[in-house]
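Hi,

Apologies if this is the wrong queue. I'm a grad student, and the batch job for GntR family transcriptional regulator from Streptomyces paromomycinus produced an output file that my downstream script rejects. I'm not sure whether the problem is my script or the file. Here is the sequence I used:
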Amino acid sequence: MEQGRAEPAPRLRAQVPAQGGSQPVRGEHTGRDVSARHPAAHTGPGAPDAAYGHDPGVPDPATAYVPVPLSPLTAPPGAMPTGIRGGTAAAPVPAPAAAPRKQPIRHSVRGQVLAALREALISGELRPGEVYSAPALAVRYGVSATPVREAMQTLAGEGAVEVAPNRGFRVAERTHRDLAELAEVRAMLEIPALLRLARALPAERWEELRPLAAAGVAAAAHGDRAGYAEADHAFHHALLALTGNRQLLQVADDLHRRTQWPAPGGTPPRTADLLAAASEHTALLDALMAREYAIVERIAREHLASARRPH
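Support response: The file is valid. Your script probably expects a header line. Output copied below for reference.
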C-alpha cells in the first residue's frame, strides 16, 4: 500500500433469504406483525410503577393485536398455492428497495401456521390420539413442510402434540386428572398475584382491561370456541403482565396453553357455557375496581376451576 493512500473498505453483500412463493407473505410489506400470537410476551426496560408495579414495556392490552387465524387452502382445482393464504399463481412482484430484514419471511409463515394449528387443536378438528404428518398439513395449508414442522415443534413444547418418529406428530391425549392438576397449579400462581395487584393498583388500571373482557364475551356469544380461547388467554396474560414479573408470565402462559387442549371424550362447550366463563372476566374486573378482595378470590377460584372440566 502506498504511504498516505487509504485502502477502500470491503463491500458487504446482503444475504437475502430464498423465497418459496411468487407472492409476498401477507403482512410483510404493511408493517403488520403476523408472527406474534399474543400481546405482552415480554417486558421492556424501566422501573415498574404503582406499589406492585406494571412494566411500561408491556403493550396496552386495549390495543394489542391478535392476528387473524390461517384459513385452509381454497384454491380451485389445478391452481398453484402461492402463499400462506392460498390462491392462484401470479406474475412475480419485484420487491421494493428496503432495509435488510431482521428475520426471514419464513418466520411470519410459521407464525400463521402455528395460529392455524392451535385453532384446529382447540376446535377439535385435529383429534386427540391421531397422527398428522407435516407434509400432509403443508398441502392442506398451502405452504412448505418446513414451517409446519417448526410450528409442530413449538406445540410439542406446549404439550399439545408428541413427536411420532418417522410418522409425524400425534395429538396429545389430555386426561381429566391432567386438567385438574393444571387448574390447581394455575390457582397457586395466579390468585396470590392477583390479590397483591388488587391492593396495589388503582381502579383506572383495571378499566383498561375492559376491551379484552368484551372480546371474550363477543367470541362466546358467537359460539367461537377458538376465538374465546384466544381472548381468555389474552385476558389472563394482561392481568399477570401488570406484575412486571417476566418469569411468572412465562410459566403462567405455558400452563394456560396446556389447559386449552381438549380432553378425550370431551364435548364442545355450549354457547351458554362460553358466555358464563366470559362473564366471569367482567365480574372479576368489577370486583377488582371495587377492592372487594374476598369476591376477587372467589371469582378467580371458580373461573380457574372451570378449566378442570373437559372441553
